[in-house]
Here is the input.
Amino acid sequence: MILVSACLVGCHCRYDGGTKERPDLVKLIRQGRAVPVCPEQMGGLPTPRVPAEIVGGDGEAVLDGRARVVNSAGDDVTAQFLAGAREALRMAEAAGASVAILKERSPSCGSAAIYDGTFSGATVPGAGVTAALLRRHGVRVYSEETWDGGTGNAHT
Ligand code: SF4
Here is the structure.
């Protein structure tokens, strides 16, 4: 089973109420091979919501208490991001998912890059909070950009 970011399969759960639907990933849902999660909604944040970025590090640092997640209004939303990551992990374990395909550059779902915390659109290498937690528990995390379509070879 595969865990997939809900915004990649048509859910309007992005901070701006939008979606980033990918027909190839919707197909996985239809085939019963994937389950959708939106960690930010599952952590208790509303939609639409004020956009947030990780300040002071990456998702690993947030898990270790060395960085925070802050929204563009200046509110600390670290607790909600951590709660959402734990909920996504719970769903991965319930579904027996060993693979995840998560939205790149999100402070929750990014797996290779995240926004740099300045709300300027700039990115830095690193994973979001949920991607980092899933990896700590043995889930192989890809993005919609590196997912190989199930051939076994991730694009890099
Ligand atoms: Fe939700 Fe992740 Fe998509 Fe953000 S990137 S809307 S947290 S599923």
